[in-house]
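New to this. Please check this record:
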Amino acid sequence: MGRVSPVMTLLAFAPPIEEWPTPPTLGWSSQKRELFAHRVAALTDYVDGVKTGIQIQRETTINRCLYSGLLRKCLETAPDGQIFGFRALEPHKHHKRYTRTTPVKGKPSNNRGHYAGALQYVLRQEPRLETDLIQFLKQRVEICSGNPEAFRKGLIYAEFIRLLYVHKVDTEWPENTNDKGRKTLYKWFDEIIATTPGLLVATQSDLARTRSQTGTGETSLLQFFEPFYAVEIDAHKIQALTTIMFNDGIEEIDVILPRWWILAVVESRSTAVWAHLPVFSSEVRASDVQELIKLAFGTPQTPNGFPEPYQRFAPGAGFPNVLIPALSGAVPSLVLFDNALAHLARAIHMETRKIFGFSICYGSPHTPSTRHNIEHLFDRYADGVSHQLPSSTGNRPDKRPSVAEENALRLRIRADEVAHLSGNFFANYNVTPKATIPGLSPMQLLQRAFAGNAPSALPRHLPTYQKELADVLSVHAVHTVKGNNEKGIHPYIQHESCRYSSPKLANSYWLRGKKIDCLERGGRHLDLYYQGNLFDRVTVQGKWSGFEHSIRDRKAILSAVRSKELSLVGRTNYMQAYHEMLVDRLKTTKDPKRQKRAALELLRLESAEYFRDKHKEGKKNKQKVTPPTTPRFTNRTGILNGERSWKIRNR
């Protein structure tokens, strides 16, 4: 009995030759297609066993000595788990890498020969060498994640040389080569990174890592087909110098702000801008996000543009919650945030979410693709507004950053005017046709869905009692009712360093020591809720009750008192005293950081409605002082040099 060939043994377990995979021949040349057809015919006749090898060679011109080798290639397992089949017969294509079987020896030569497969041979000598090297490669990728410049292959090469000595691998490679094997090793590193999930993305820049989350071929879970079901909220930092002018009746003071923020709410289906809010501070607070939400879903926001005749509104421009009656005061079902600290604050994910009744989706870190509409809006805003300012400090080939501060002072680029310009941009953006909704603008899409006699969608509105809470966005707190019956101290609430009481609470001794829910109504009043029912509205005690203020104002005033910058002795209006202290600090300080903080605090204070009216009345009654005849100017060199960045002009 003759010996059975190993190839024939594999053929017995292989599928029928009629079912073998075949490569696509589209695009092949006629010579390549003819050679492939001859190989297939020769191998088919060889497997059938009807014709002899000489007959097959005469008919197909394929040498009979190649039949066994071609059959072995066809029966090998392909990467897809099947046999290669007729795919292994494709001319001029290698399906298996070269495997070296002899050690590398010899002196360095300039002819670049005799070193093929040397790295794989060395790695097979010691299996732990490849495992340790890949582990070190992953560690370096994690350390240099997001910083591709810090990922240096030279460190991995040095680790490879060290591991050769640690594992005592008997080889002369790579020391017997001219480049010490660096080119081969670097190529192998690239193959490992490209074939290992996550390593290739981790070695790229932040932009590449962000974009790698998109285009994966998977259907997104966040798809919104109904208008006003979800909105996107985010903040955009603007690196442009603007000025704020303060006038105390004697002189004007210009303060330069190095940067500011623009907050926006964008509807996901129509990409319409619902509301926007400029924030002139170094960082965005949770209170700023609350104010934006109140503008979007509470009190409607009208376009805040330039006075006539400088307005540039397109026909029908504006905001949907103002122009479409059905959307006035409407609330979405889902809000898309990022993982900013202001969005993760308790005031947002607890108090604000409960009042408006929407769900929150923060998404994964470093995935702005889930909020692509608002990211696109900010790109358009940067191209059309912030990058066009002569005081922008972005990366430019010209000398704009070096003269940005001079332009801000010389051209008097006011912060409020930039805010008006933003209002013009967003109002016109809503009536601009978009490629995602061909032939329609965001406003037209919403009008078709919610306006008319037969709207196709119904927005969600809050009940009446919740609308009152939404207009105020009260801060919720739980306090214990204090008091002492033996000492004759009536029950009261201690909230933010002040006592709150009312006649009803003062006579409710049975509440002493019990927990009660409190909702802020400004700085002077608290609404008390006991067991879910409104109990009473209490008022702050002492001089704090004589003027309107907020809790933030009170904290700032008490902080200034503790630092001995402000004295309240003999003062009845603490807000006026605090305002005078800020103006004095703005005029006398030489520290640009303290000056900027004072300017931002003054801007916040004077923009509050409860302070603006009282301050105007005080200015009318204030005696004007004749300004000095000698003009005074301060140094105007850049704040980047740590010098004074404001100037005083006579009026």
